[in-house]
Amino acid sequence: MAASTGLPVFAVAAQPSTAAARKSTRIRFGDDAALSACWRGYCCEVRDSAIGSALEEAVGDVVLAWQDGVPIWTQRRVVGVNVMMAALPLPLFTERDFIHDYLWPSELLHLLPLLQFLRNLTRAEDWQSPPTPACLVVDDPNLHLRTYGYLDFQRLADDAWAQNFFVSIAMVPLDSWWIGREVREIFRQNAPRISILLHGNNHTYEELACPASEAEILSLLSEALRRMERLENEAGMEVCRVMECPHCAIAEDRLEPMAKLGYEAALASTAYFLKFNPDVRFRSELGAEPTLLTEKAVPILPRIQVYADWETDVRLAAFLRQPMFLATHHWDFAHGSHVVQDFAEIVNSLPDVCWASPKGAARACYQFRQVGDVLHIKLGSRLVDVAVGRGMRKVVVHRPWLHGKDESELMVLRGESKELFRAVSSAAVIGPISLDESTVLELSSSLLDKVDSNSVSAPPRRYWPLVRRFMAEVRDRSLLGVYLRGQVDESNGRRARSCETGDALPRE
Ligand SMILES: [Zn+2]
To answer: Where are the alpha helices (DSSP H) in 429-491?
Structure first.
């Protein structure tokens, strides 16, 4: 009856199933164009999932997903309009809930059908995105020798070319005092396919989440930058100004000092970001947007951990147009582990994605819309590089984290040969700004109270971080490496311990 209005319809089964959640169910997606390409033909095991009532299947219906062989998501044409039907009930949000709470594999089919319906409905009007960036990240290795645990940097670079992926080493700045000559050459010759980003400063327990004063935070983050700048100057290697948080722990009060110091982004999984910031109020859209960017902060780019359901998380990130960072460790490169190859194959099979370094990924976090000869750009990061389509004469910049009455920021727009615009403004929308013949624009919106890392005093000298790093290196290069290999082999290479749970060193 609703279809008689001539409008597309989304319907949910009136009687939810009373069957108890099963320990494991098998979800199979159809291959119809009504589904985003990242889901078409995908099959996965989902743990602890609710059971949907079987939907009635009429002639001409398209099944978009089955649960244990039973149709639970369908679409049919009724009097010329699409009627999408879902078996699992929609989640009931409270004011303390986030969309992220329903983007876990076990909850996904409660919300995904509605998100897909809305995506299909608004496709022509919605903001468009550049290709979604992807990058493999390896936490913890230092670059003293050609190998680190199961990692061989030359082989990693060769595999990155052969299997077509980008990889970035999350290196602890404390380890930057020496870079092996052979390793320098490997990174220089294969950049940006293989790159470096920051991993804390000393990698002590939750060093970016423990209580600290603003001066202490600035001091630690500045030292991390100075250590990496010295590496760049002495070894001739570029370091992405992107922070991979040790133990996935970052407190919200670190984001403003990072923005002041010129960090471009931080990587953190949404669940851990919520866990370490229980008293901070976030918008309910948390987890559904490409990045999390708030006032006076660096953007947080979602990071995916290697655990049993990581492949579903990667596809979900592609669906949400979020950068796809898969965080691994050296044991994910052990013989018998398929994580790296599987990730490369998945990303390479998806349309509208591209490999990028963390720097390239952070600078691809924007959305755009063309209206006549005006290019509208919505920033998802404070510094982006935008490819300009033919015929664009003007640009309008959208900074959704500003509301016109907040503190001002410095907006700068550069073409390939000259600066096109510079202004201090608190406006959420700036423009139109006339363009020249540039095919690539650099847009930056930076805080006015920037801090030079070289002007900040160093933290007090401590010996514990050095001892801890030495113990970690011994663990990774020798005896405990054998133990960790056992963990990988036992789980057929599909699961791995992570930095969050696998750090067996004393906390301090
Ligand atoms: Zn780590």
So the answer is: 464-477, 479-490
**In whole angstroms, what is the distance from residue 250 CA to residue 257 CA?**
12
- Distance in angstroms (rounded) separating the CA atoms of residues 34 and 16: 24
| pLDDT tens-digit readout, 96-154 | 788 888 888 878 888 999 999 999 998 888 899 999 999 999 999 999 999 998 999 99
Ligand 1 geometric centre to CA of 204 (Å) = 9
C-alpha 203 – ligand 1 centre gap (Å):
7
The pTM of this model reads 0.89
Residue 493 confidence (pLDDT):
36
Spatial distance between the Cα atoms of 223 and 219, rounded to a whole number of angstroms: 6
Distance 206 CA to ligand 1 centre (A): 10
- Cα–ligand 1 centroid distance for 96 (angstroms): 31
- Angle, helices 181-190 vs 153-162, to 10°: value is 10
Domain locations in the chain? 2-122, 132-359+462-502, 366-446
pLDDT per position as a tens digit, 315-327:
999 999 999 999 9
Surrounding ion ligand 1 within 5 Å at CB are 139-140, 246, 499
Sort 11 into a burial class: Cβ within 10 Å, 0-12 / 13-18 / 19+.
middle
According to the model, what pLDDT value does residue 464 have? 81
Which class is domain 132-359+462-502? alpha beta
Report how far ligand 1's centroid is from the alpha carbon of 248 (Å): 8
Separation of 220 CA from ligand 1 center, angstroms? 16
